[in-house]
Amino acid sequence: MRKELFQLRNLKQSDVKEYINFLLDPDVNIWLEDEVQSIKDFSNIENYLMYGWYRQAIEHEKKFIGVSGLDLVNKKNKVARFFIVIGKKDLWGKGIGSGVIKSIVNYGFKELQLRKINSDFLTPNEAVKIIHEKAGFQHEGFLRKDSYRNNIWIDREIVSIFADELNS
Ligand SMILES: CC(C)(COP(=O)(O)OP(=O)(O)OC[C@H]1O[C@@H](n2cnc3c(N)ncnc32)[C@H](O)[C@@H]1OP(=O)(O)O)[C@@H](O)C(=O)NCCC(=O)NCCS
Predict the structure, then answer these.
(1) Is the beta carbon of 36 within 6 A of some atom in ligand 1?
(2) Distance of alpha carbon 128 from alpha carbon 159, whole angstroms
(3) In Å, how far from its chain's centre is CA 118?
(4) pLDDT digits (tens, 9 = 90+) for 77-110
(5) DSSP helix, strand, coil percent of the chain (3-state; round to 5)
(6) What are the residue ranges of helices labelled H in the chain?
(7) What residue segments make up the domains of the chain, in order of their start?
(8) Cβ of 58 less than 6 Å from ligand 1
(9) 9 CB within 6 A, ligand 1
(10) Which of 32, 68, 117, 128 to mutate to test the pocket of ligand 1 (most atoms within 8 A of CB)?
(11) Which pTM was predicted?
């Protein structure tokens, strides 16, 4: 029988420390938000993780490897923002991100009754661009020179998806 690439489950308090360790790795955090480039207050990370709108721990072979989820950005318009972080670098490029994004987005439309899901990423992050495109996200535009990394200003790409665009 083929082994599942990943499982999703609710977060546990014990995930927080491991997640913070993932975020302290420059290879993992380089294309994440400016706030996690140098973390000043770990309680902000804990709050984001444990008390966010919709969060799922990602597991591979029963081990915690990352987090994905949705933040409600506009309740009336039923719009949320997607995010994903896989902290185990040796598991990148194996199709886990591609599977997780589809599961989370599908749940957002089917169970959370969202109308639209937005997402954004810094443009050098090729892997995250690919997983969004494969899931069916559409390009909306760029926030030009939005974040400073490795001594240059980097554009941020904005993408979004409606339920009928999801490639499940
Ligand atoms: C971005 C991330 C979620 C992708 O997850 P993943 O499990 O590696 O994704 P997948 O293996 O499903 O797909 C990645 C795709 O990008 C490709 N890829 C990876 N690195 C690449 C690179 N540097 N250049 C071009 N393509 C690349 C892979 O070949 C794969 O393509 P394929 O599906 O055509 O084979 C994961 O790398 C991650 O969590 N990174 C750190 C945190 C982060 O950047 N999060 C997103 C912030 S917006």
Answers:
(1) no
(2) 11
(3) 11
(4) 999 999 999 999 999 999 999 999 999 999 999 9
(5) 35, 35, 30
(6) 15-23, 26-29, 42-50, 96-110, 126-135
(7) 7-118
(8) no
(9) no
(10) 128
(11) 0.97
Checking if the pLDDT of 3 tops 80, the result is no
pLDDT score at 151? 97
Angstrom CA distances, 148 to 41, 44, 83, 156, stand at: 21, 22, 20, 11
Distance from Cα 126 to the centre of ligand 1, integer Å: 6
- Which residue has a Cα nearest atom 6 of ligand 1? 97
**Is the CB–ligand 1 distance for residue 163 below 6 Å?**
no
Phi, psi of 133 (to 5 degrees): -60, -45
Q: In this structure, which topology does domain 7-118 adopt according to CATH?
A: Aminopeptidase (3.40.630)
Chain-centroid distance, C-alpha 66: 9
**Ligand 1 pocket member 131 (CB < 6 A):** yes
